[in-house]
Amino acid sequence: MNAPNRFELYVLEDGEKPVEITEDTKIPNAATIKVVKQDHTLGNMLRAQLLAMPQILFAGYKVPHPLHPYFLIKIQTDGTLTPQEVLEQACKKLIGTMSSLEAKFKREFSFKDVEGAVGGVGAQEDPYGGGGAGGAWSGGRDYLDF
Amino acid sequence: MSQTPPALVGSVFERSSASHSAPKAFKPAKAGFPVVQRRSKSAFARNREDLRTRGASRLRNVPIVVPSENAQAPKPVDPDAWRDQMSRENEQRVASMTEEEREQERQEIIERFGSGVGTLLKRVRAARDKQAQPSTGDKISVEEVQAQDGTASLEEVPITAGEKSERNITSIRRESQVSPPPLALSTSSTRPPSRTDRRLRFAELAPEDVHVYDSAPPSPRRKALALPPPSNDGPAISLGQFSGTLKPQEPLPLRPEVNNAEPEEGSAEYIRRRYFPDAPADDPNLAWMQHSSLPSDSELVTSSLRFDLSGKPIPPAVSSTLPTHLGLHHHAEGAHAGYTLDDVFLLSRSTVPAQRATMLGVLARIAKRISKIDRGVTDGMEELAGKEEELRKRIVAAGVEAMTERGSVGARAVEVIWQCIVGWDEDIMAFGGVELESPTDGAINSLRLDFFLPQVATLLSQGEILEGGRSQLLAILHRLAQQSNQFASSIVKAPKLIASVVQTFLLTSIPPTETVSPDPSALELLIILANASRENASALQEPADALLRFITFLPSSSMYPPHLAASLLTSTLRFYTTLATYGLYSHIATTAMEQFTQLGRFIRSNACTSPRLMVAWTDLLAAWMVCAVDPHQTTPGHEILWSQIIGWGWNSEVDDLSDRLGSEEGIWPVWAGIWKVRAVWLEGARVNGIRGGSSERMEVLEIIRDGFEDGKEKDIVLCCLDTIKRELDHLAFVPIARTQLPHLRAVANHATTLASAIRLWLACLPPPAEGPLSSPPFPLPFPRISDLCAKITVHHVWSLLASTEHDTRHAYVYLRSLSELLLGYLRLSRRLPGISENLWAAQALSILSRLLPGDEDFAAQVADDLFSLMTPRWVNALGIQAPSVVWDSGGMLVIKPFVAHTIRPHHDICIGPSSPTPQSISRATTLRLPSITALHTYGLPLTREWTLTPLDHLLRSGSSEVFKALPRYWDASEIDVTRISLLFTRVCRDVLHHFALADFTLTREEAIFGCMKVFMLEHGQTQTDSTEEVFRDRLVGQLMEDLLRPYTVSIAPAAASTPVLPPPIRGDLEQVAIKFLGATPFYQYYTDFVALYDAISFSHPLFARLLLPPTSLRYPVDYRKHLWSDFGHILKTIQTPVDQVICEDIREYLWPVETDPQVLGCYLHNLLKQNLQGFVHLVALHHIACNIWQDLHDDAGWVEDRANKLLEAIVEQGGHELVREVVRYHQSTTGVALVPPQCFAYALDGQTKMARLECVSRLGLGDRLQGLLGFV
C-alpha cells in the first residue's frame, strides 16, 4: 500500500550522487561512505573484501533502515592509504573477482550446453530446464525443501 | 433306561398301581351279547367324565415323577437327562392311553406330517441309536425329541464356533424336512425342558458366603457401630467401638483369569457366549452391564482418596471392608465405603437439602485438612499434595453456589467458604498494612465478587443467618479486604454491603441484649477497607458518625462489658486515625469536642488500663495535629485548625498521661505515642507558632529533658536498643522462617519506639538555618544508635524483600518500621557533628536501598541532599577528576527529573508513609504496601544501579514519561545526561566502596550492562559522523573507563581451588538485564550490541572489551557462537590485552574446556588465519590446545579423534609460531591462570612431555615436533 516503488530501490533520483565520502573529523584515517540505492548485497561484499586487505584496521557497514535504500560503510586504515583509496582498490579487486567469476561461470555454462547437446537429451527438455535442475538438486527436491 | 434306575423304578412302580387296567377284560353279558348301553348320560356328560378320569390319572402321575427328580437335585445333572425324562414322560403318556386314543394320536400325527413320518422317525431313531450307542446306550436321542417338540433353540451345551456352523447346517436341513410341531403333548403339564437343569444360583453358595451384618440399631441406646479396629499402620481412623463379632469379608471376586473358562451362568458374558457369539467380547456400549467390583475398579479406588463423613480420608484397605450402614456407600461407583472428592462435589449439588448440607459439611472438613497439607501435615492425603489450590478453588465454588440456599445448606455453604478463604491460613491475616495478593491464590482470585458480595449483603440484611454464620461472613469479608486494594474497593462499592455490615454488627440495639452485642472485628474491617484506598475512606465517612456512640459511653460507664467497651472504643479511635491519615473527617474533633474531652480525662485517669487504648488515643491526637498543621491539606479544607489544637491543650493532656506511666516493656508503645504527639506538636508549632515555635520547644524541653537525661525515658531508649539488638540476633539466619516472625514483630515494635524518640529529638532542634548545633537538646545514646542502625542496614532481614515463601512473603511489612527508624537516624546523623559528609553520603546511599514504598517523599529529599552535597569541590576531594565542563550544564540538576521518576514511577498511586506528614495526607491514595509480587513495579527500594537509570530514559526517550514532563529549566543534551549520570554513579560507587558497604555497591555485571547502555545509545541512530556519538566523548569514555577499572581482571592470586568459578552472587548479566529489558532476552540485546560494534565502532577499545563478558563460559554457548562464528570477521579488531578484560578472573573464559565443535572450528579457523591478538588469541589457543593435549583437558570430554585432527590442522596449516605455542602450551587448572608468555615458557615435566611426544609420534609428526618439546 504505502510501500515505496520498487524502482526507488535501485534508480538514482535526479541529481543524487551514488557515493558520498565523509572523512571522520575525530578518528584518524577513518571515513564513512554512504552508498545510495544499494543494499546488503554490495555492503556485505565490500566489507568482506575490505577486511581481507592488510591496510584495513576496521571495516563495517550498516543499513540504517530497511526501507531506506542506502548503506553506510565505515573504514579505518593504518595510514598507508586513505580510506578512499582503499575503497577504490577494494572495488577494483571486487570487480576483478566478479568478472573472473562471471567468465568462469559462463565457461562452465557453455560446457554444460555442449555436453547437453552431445548427450542428445536436450531436444525434448522443457524450456525451464526442469530436467536439468531436477538432476542437479538430487532427486527433484524443491528449493522450498530447505 | 436302566441307566437311571431311581427314576425308572419310581415311574414303573407308581404307574403299575395307577390307572393301568388298560385292556379291559371282556365282560360277558348274561345273554352272551354285549349289554346294550343305555344312553342315559348325554354325550357332554360322558366327555366330562372321560376327561376327569384321564386328568386324575395324569395328576397322579406328575407328583410321582417330580419328587424323584427333586431328590436328585444336588447331584450334578447330566445335560442329556432332560431327554431321558422327556422320553419317559412321553412313553408314560403313551402307555396310559387307551388303544383308541393312541390310534387317534397316530392319525393326528400322520395327518399333520404326512404318511411318511413314521418311517422318517424310525430312520432318525435308528441313526441316533447308532450314534449314541457307544456312550450312552439307548438314551433317547436329541434329534428325536427335537423333532417332536422343536426345542432345538434351547440347546444347553455351549457351542464353540466350529461346532456351531456345523450344527447350523444340520438344523437348517432338518427344518426343511420337518416343520416344528406344536407341543401337543409336552406343553400340557411339564415344565419346559430347557429349565429342568438350570441351577439355582444360591444353591451353590457356601454358608460362609452369606454375611450377616449387625444392622443399624433399632434404638439409639444400643451400641451402634460395628467396625473392626483399623490395622496398626498409619493414622488410625476410629468410627466407634466394636463389641460384637464380625466375619471378615472375602476378597472381591476376581475376573476369571482364563478367558475360555466357563463364565458364571446368567452373567453378561455367559449370555453373550451363548446367544450372541458373534458380538465382540468387550462392547463399550454394554460397559454399563459390567459388574462393578472388577479389578480395574479397585485400582481406581486406590488412586483416589475416599473420605468419611467427618472429612477424614479412609485408607483403601479399610474402605473395602466397612459395612454399609455407616452411610458411606451412597455413591454410584464401586462398593467401597467413603466418598471420593468427585462424589462429594457431586452430592454437594444434590436436590435433597439434607444430603447437600451433609456434603457441604464434609467439604468444609476436607478443606480444613487440605489446608494443612501446606504446612506439611499430610494425614494420609499425600496424593493431594500439589493440588491444594486447585481443590480450594473447586471447593469454594461449591460453597458459593450453595450459599444462597436457606436453612442448614446455606449455613454449611458459608462454613465451606469460610474454611477456604479464612480458615485456610488464618495466620496470614495477622499481616496488616500489606496486600496479601499472590498469584498462587487462585481460589480467592477466582471468586466472582460481583456475584458474591451482593449475596453476602442479602444474607446479612435478611438477618436469617445464625450468629456463627454471621461472624464467618464478617471474617470472609475481612480476608477479602486484605487481599488487595481492588477487592477492598469492590467491597465498599457493593450496594448495601457496608450498610448491612454496620447495621448488623455495630448498630445493635441499645440497651444490649444477651445475644446481640457490637462486634469490634467489624470495626477492624472498616479500618482495613479505609486503609486500602482514599475512595474507600471517603465512602466510609458516612457510617463514621454512628460510631460516636462507642466514644460517648466510656468503658467506665458503658452498658457493655468493660472489655468489649474498651476494644470498641480502641477500634473506633483507630478508625478515625485512619480517616485522618487521608485528611478526612477531622471535623469530628470539633463537633464532638465534649466527648473527646471526656475521653481524654478518662484516659489520663487511673481507670484506663489498656495500653492499646492509650496508643490509639495518642495516634489519633497525632494524626489530627498533622491535619491541623496545614488546614489546606485536609479534605475539605479548614476542618481542623491549629488554634483549636492549642485551645484543647492536647499537649498538656499527654504530659499528664506520661506522668502516670511506668517504664515496663508493655508500656513502650504508649511512650512512643506520647513522643510522637509531642514531636508533631513541635513540628506544627514550627510552622504555625510564633518565631518558629521556639517558645513551645523550650516548654517541651523543660518537661522532657530530665526524663531523657536520667529517668524513665532514658531507660526505655536503652532497653529498646538492647532488645532490638537481641531480637535481631535471632533473625541472623537466612531464609527467615515462619517461626522467627515473632522476633521480627518485636524488632518492628521497638524500632517504632526508637524512631519516635529520634523524631522527638529532631523536633526539638532549632531550624538548621540557625547554624550548627552547639549542644543536643537532650541526650540520646548516639553511638549506640549508630551502631544499631549500621547493623540493621546490612542485616539479613532485608532478604525478606526477595522472599517467595508463602509463609514469610508478607512479613516484609514489618520492615517498614525498620526503614522508618533508618530514616530517622539519617536525619539525625545529618545534624550530628561527628559525622563527616562522606560518611553521611555513604549512610544515605545505603539507606536509600532500604526504603520501602511510602517513603518516596523522604527518598526524594535524601537524593536532593546528596545532589547538593556533590559540589565540584567535594567530588574533587574524593579524588575523582571531574572537569568543570561537567558542571557547566547544570550539574546534578540534569539528572534530577530522572531520579525523581526512578523513586516514584507511579503517578496515580501514592502510598502513605508510616507516619503521616501534612503533604502526605492530601496525596496518599492508599496506606497499604503492595503485595510483594507487585513490589518491583515501585521505585523503592532502590536497586544498586539506580544512579544509571537516566540512561534508560535516554535509550527509551520516545516512550519515557520523564521526557514528556521535563521542567522548564532543563535543556541538557544526551552527552550531559550521560556524563552526569556516570559521574554520579562513579562517586556513589567510590563512597560506598570506601565504607565497605559491599551490598550496596554496583556489581561488575551491573557496571558492564550500564556501560553497554551508553554504547547502545547509538543503536538506530543515522548520523554519519562519529563526533555525535556519545561514547566517543572524551569525558564519557574516561568516566566509563574509571567506572569499569575496579572490575577489570585482577592479576592478584585468587584462592579458588576448582578451575570452574562459581557464578556471581548477585546475578549474572542476564539477570541484571531483566529489569531493563523485561521480556526481551539479553541475547537479543547482545546481538544488537555486536551488530552495532560491527557497524560503527572503528574498533573502539572499550566497546571491544564489552563484547567479551557474555562469551565467558558461564554463559550459554550461543553467545560464543554469535561472536566467534556469526561475527567472526570482527575478531580481528578486538585487540583487548589480557589484563584489560572485565572479569573477576580470566579462568572463567578458560574452564570448563569448550567442546562445542562449531566454536572449536571457529577458534581453529581464526588461529590459522592469524586474525587474533591479545585475549581472544589466548582463549582460542587455550581451547584448541586443551582439546589436543589430554593432560590439559579437565574431564572426560577429550576425544582422541578430534585431538588428532586438530593437531594435524595446526601443524599442516599453521605458522611456525602457532605450532610452537600449541605444542608448548600449558595452563594450570588451579590457582592463577597463566597468561602469555608464561603459558608457553612453562617447563613441562617429563611425563607430560613423553605423553605429548607419544601423541605426535603416533601421527607421524614426531620428527617435526620433538624439538619443540625439548627432545633434541
UniProtKB/TrEMBL annotation, chain A:
Keyword terms of this UniProt record: DNA-directed RNA polymerase, Nucleus, Transcription
Compartments reported by the entry: Nucleus
Molecular-function GO terms, alphabetical: DNA-directed RNA polymerase activity; protein dimerization activity
Protein's UniProt keywords contain Hydrolase: no
GO CC, any one term: RNA polymerase II, core complex
Domain of life: Eukaryota
SUPFAM superfamilies in the cross-refs: RBP11-like subunits of RNA polymerase
Ranges of residues in domain DNA-directed RNA polymerase RBP11-like dimerisation: 30-102
One Gene Ontology biological process: transcription by RNA polymerase II
InterPro entries given in the database record: RBP11, RBP11-like, RBP11-like_dimer, Rpo11-like
CDD domains in UniProt: RNAP_II_RPB11
Gene3D superfamilies noted in UniProt: RNA polymerase, RBP11-like subunit
Pfam families: RNA_pol_L_2
HAMAP family per UniProt: RNApol_arch_Rpo11
Family: Belongs to the archaeal Rpo11/eukaryotic RPB11/RPC19 RNA polymerase subunit family.
Protein name: DNA-directed RNA polymerase RBP11-like dimerisation domain-containing protein
Provenance organism: Tricholomella constricta
UniProtKB/TrEMBL annotation, chain B:
Localisation: Nucleus
Alphabetical keyword list: Nucleus, Transcription
TM stretches of this protein: none
Amino acid composition bias (Basic and acidic residues), ranges on this chain: 77-92, 163-176
Ranges of residues in domain RPAP1 C-terminal: 304-370
Span of domain RPAP1 N-terminal: 87-123
Region (Disordered) location: 1-27, 62-104, 147-197, 209-266
UniProt-listed GO biological process terms: transcription by RNA polymerase II
Pfam families: RPAP1_C, RPAP1_N, TPR_RPAP1
Primary location group: nucleus
Xref: InterPro entries: RPAP1/Rba50, RPAP1_C, RPAP1_N, TPR_RPAP1/MINIYO-like
Composition skew (Low complexity), residue ranges: 16-27, 184-193
Chain ranges of the RPAP1/MINIYO-like TPR repeats domain: 1075-1185
Family: Belongs to the RPAP1 family.
UniProt protein name: RNA polymerase II-associated protein 1 C-terminal domain-containing protein
Source taxonomy: Eukaryota, Fungi, Dikarya, Basidiomycota, Agaricomycotina
